[in-house]
Design brief:
The complex is a heterodimer. By secondary structure, chain A is of the alpha/beta class. Chain A has a single domain (2-193), classed as Pyruvate-ferredoxin Oxidoreductase, domain 3, CATH 3.40.920. Chain A has 7 helices and 6 strands, in the order βαβββαβαβαααα. Chain A has a 6-stranded mixed β-sheet with strand order 2-3-1-4-5-6, with helices on both faces. Chain B is an alpha/beta fold. Chain B has 4 domains: 3-227, Rossmann fold; 232-351, 3-Layer(aba) Sandwich (Rossmann fold); 372-531, Rossmann fold (3-Layer(aba) Sandwich), CATH 3.40.50.970; 534-591, Alpha-Beta Plaits, CATH 3.30.70.20. Chain B is built from 20 helices and 23 strands. In chain B, helix 17 (437-453) links the parallel strand 16 and strand 17. The longest helix of chain B has 22 residues, at 206-227. Chain B is globular and about 80 Å long. The chains are: A alpha/beta, B alpha/beta.
């Protein structure tokens, strides 16, 4: 990690997309690699399909478990609209890894879902680097299920130097945190690491 | 193996889990709770480890019975622990306050919810209750401290024979951090209640003597607090500005100081009642300005101002004049406050991004696809459109949101029935009270008895989904008690249990009972949809060509119904409750083949 500064990650998406599991895998990995780590999550009102957000910060010594505004090094977003919602954490040093798979809000808000070009243009203008990947689309095509999108994102981030943690430690943490369908998830991790 | 039971090493734990680990390392014997987020996982963790560790654990029917259970165990000589959310402490208050007078050692963990992430009643600062109760108060700032402070709380509870309160907030409860584990011993113990007249006979004038003793004890705890390493000074030096803080606020301010190389003296208070007055006095000296950083109310700020005034220390003390009293803190809020105090920091909010985020379509918290409450709300609204709808606390409070708008107010646990009764007695309006099964047993039952006793003719809808759903699907008395039998035993004539998915039957029963003008209870029963595995929903619904795009199906606010130019049902979300098919005027929604 550069200049002994802590690495700050915001993970976002919808309830049910495995946001907390993904955060736990990253936090556990950081711990096993000898870093101090803190992680935040929220429980309660939003269950399925609500905005979900988790923060992970690791480094030599970590006090806060919440990433400050404009302070994220990496934003992992499993849904484009939710990526927009975390833009207050982005700055010109932030990389955003975005799953190109929209899930529209339910019939409670009459506002239109923003145009995808508007989303990518806005994200690009406010961060260092936007990486758009078809994680859910590929999973849907290949295994007929979008479960595992979180692990796909993790594998991609790890293989493309977006996340300064070691691959073998990440694999161990997947085994520790994900108890259901472990084999499938490990395969997804390996596969996404080879994505271009 | 469950990480919480690891013998040693280190592990990542939620603050709530770390509290349980602390209790475990202290040798706790007895734990009770009523689930309430942000404290829920404390009880849930005990529930998971109870059998293996021999700890007695129960989900009690409410926070008062939970507190009294732990108190009984404490009076029987067991190491006792009880947890609840902030509102729960209000419910338990009637037994909490006198327990101090009878010198009952026990630890009570209370989680406040600044920003109301999972609360709808009010933003409450429970720290004042420790002052009201004359009990010591500890405020951890992360998971490691959650463990350590729990161990310390048991130590203080036993050394001074007193209840001790640990105050958490959503962010300490629900943040994870590394916790260093120490060995623990599993020991099952048999309690023994010893009769003791001078301890338990609280009739006046003895109670006045006891009050004096409680105050004397508090003074001794104050001396203990003076020496406690839980109250810790960082960066001590003479300085224009110094900071006093506690709990989660410490984590934000330390982040700012470290990352910006600011050497501002800081006093972190771990024991926030009674305060270590001497330590504070010596900290205040050789400083010009103090900033007190605490979420919600100026609890420490006012106490520190009083200490400064009493000791004639000439110093400016700031707090709520530069920091908000409502909502939770974060690094940005504290940076702004430091700038107001004259600290040079490179930080400004990006107003444009804020505006952009505010303009995005929102995802409101919403009843799940297939939630049995949805059918009940829609049936009541369609049958009694002009009635007053009294709400209560549980998932079903989401019924207040559009498009359902099926509740007119939500107050506190049990208030739906209680307040509905008052409205019914004061007006000629029709009143429907909604309450869930767990909330009914928590505090709705007394309200229903009051309705019987005082001859009300309201309609009570009991939304029985078999669990305490919103806090994590804990079991409650509905698993062993039949609400229909209870209502009948109270002498209520109009009582019926209806399948909560059966729209027509619900409407018919509501109409019939409402027309009879007598006190009526309908139990709308159906297991919470969240408990069923996603692949168990065999029947899915779809929109057929008969759809005339009238959009009536959007009135129920089902997340599985998507709308654009045409209406579509999201197959992976549809849980087959069939409400949309039952209300479609064109019979255009059918079970998919």
């Amino acid at each position: 990690m550069k200049n002994n500064k802590n690495f700050k990650i915001v993970i976002t998406g919808l309830g049910g997309q495995g946001i907390i599991s993904l955060a736990k895998i990253i936090a556990t990995t950081a711990m096993h690699q000898g870093y101090d780590v803190k992680m935040s999550e929220l429980h309660g009102l939003s269950q399925r399909m609500g905005h979900a957000e988790s923060h992970v910060i690791f480094g030599e010594k970590v006090y806060s478990s919440l990433v400050g505004e404009q302070e994220a090094d990496l934003i992992i977003a499993l849904e484009p609209l939710e990526a927009m919602r975390t833009l207050n954490f982005a700055s010109k040093k932030t990389a955003i890894l975005l799953n190109n798979y929209t899930i529209k809000p339910v019939s409670t808000d009459k506002k239109e879902y923003p145009d995808m070009n508007f989303i990518t243009d806005t994200l690009k203008s406010l961060c260092k680097e936007l990486v758009l990947i078809d994680a859910s689309k590929k999973l849907e095509k290949e295994i007929n299920s979008i479960e595992g999108t979180n692990i796909f994102m993790l594998g991609y981030a790890s293989a493309h130097a977006l996340l300064p943690l070691k691959k073998e430690f990440l694999i161990e943490s997947i085994k520790e945190v994900i108890l259901k369908n472990q084999d499938i998830n490990l395969k997804i991790f390996e596969k996404s690491a080879n994505e271009k | 193996m469950n990480n919480i039971l690891k013998k040693d090493g280190k592990t990542l734990l939620l603050g709530n889990e770390a509290i349980v680990r602390g209790a475990l390392e202290s040798g706790v014997n007895f734990a009770s709770t009523y689930p309430g987020t942000p404290a829920s996982e404390i009880g849930d963790t005990f529930s998971k480890i109870a059998k293996e560790t021999g700890i007695y654990f129960e989900y009690s029917t409410n926070e008062k019975t939970a507190f009294e259970a732990a108190l009984g165990a404490s009076l029987s000589g067991l190491k006792s622990f009880v947890s609840m959310k902030h509102f729960g402490l209000n419910v338990a208050l009637d037994s909490f306050l006198p327990s101090v007078y009878i010198n009952a050692p026990l630890v009570i963990a209370v989680s406040d919810d600044p920003n109301c992430w999972s609360s709808v009643q009010e933003e409450e600062d429970s720290r004042y209750i420790s002052m009201l109760a004359n009990v010591p108060l500890l405020e951890p700032s992360d998971s490691q401290e959650c463990k350590e402070f729990t161990i310390e709380s048991f130590k203080i509870a036993e050394q001074f024979s007193t209840p001790v309160m640990i105050r958490l907030t959503t962010r300490t409860s629900h943040n994870s951090g590394i916790v260093h584990l120490e060995p623990y011993n599993i020991q099952k113990r048999q309690g023994n209640f010893i009769k003791n007249e001078s301890r338990f006979n609280t009739l006046s004038p003895r109670i006045i003597e006891m009050h004096t003793q409680v105050i004397e004890k508090l003074n001794k705890i104050k001396e203990y607090s003076e020496k406690s390493p839980l109250n810790k000074i960082f960066n001590d030096s003479s300085s224009d500005l110094a900071i006093i803080t506690s709990g989660i606020s410490f984590s934000y301010i330390m982040t700012i100081l470290e990352e910006n190389n600011l050497k501002i003296p800081l006093l972190k208070l771990g024991i926030t009642y009674p305060l270590c007055e001497k330590k504070i006095i010596s900290f205040l000296k050789i400083k010009k300005k103090i900033l007190v950083i605490e979420e919600l109310e100026p609890f420490l700020e006012n106490a520190i101002k009083a200490i400064a005034q009493k000791n004639k220390i000439n110093i400016e003390i700031y707090g709520k004049d530069v920091l908000p009293r409502a909502g939770e803190f974060n690094v940005g809020i504290l940076k702004k406050a430091l700038k107001k105090m004259g600290i040079n920091l490179d930080y400004s909010e990006n107003e444009k991004v804020k505006e952009l985020i505010n303009s995005l379509p929102k995802r409101f918290p919403i009843l799940c696809a297939g939630c049995p409450h949805r059918t009940v709300f829609y049936a009541v609204k369609k049958t009694l459109p002009d009635a007053i709808y009294a709400g209560d606390i549980g998932c079903y409070l989401l019924g207040i949101l559009p498009p359902l708008k099926a509740l007119d107010f939500i107050l506190d646990m049990g208030a739906g029935i209680g307040v509905a009764h008052g409205i019914k007695k004061s007006t000629t309006q029709k009143v429907v009270a909604f309450i869930g099964d767990s909330t009914f047993f928590h505090s709705g039952f007394a309200g229903l008895v009051n309705m019987v006793f005082n001859k009300s003719n309201a309609l009570v809808m009991i939304l029985d989904n078999r669990v305490t759903a919103m806090t994590g699907h804990q079991k409650n008395p509905s698993s062993v008690l039949d609400i229909e039998k209870i209502a009948k035993a109270l002498g209520i004539k109009n009582v019926k249990t209806v399948d909560a998915y059966n729209f027509q039957e619900l409407k018919k029963t509501i109409k019939k009972f409402s027309d009879s003008n007598e006190l009526s209870v309908i139990i709308a029963k159906r297991e919470c949809v969240f408990l069923k595995p996603r692949d168990s929903f065999k029947v899915k619904y779809e929109i057929t060509e008969a759809c005339k795009n009238c959009r009536i199906c959007l009135e129920i606010g089902c997340p599985a119904i998507e709308f654009g130019e045409k209406i579509k049902i999201n197959r992976s979300l549809c849980s087959g409750c069939a409400l949309c098919a039952q209300i479609c005027p064109n019979k255009a929604i059918k079970a998919a083949k």
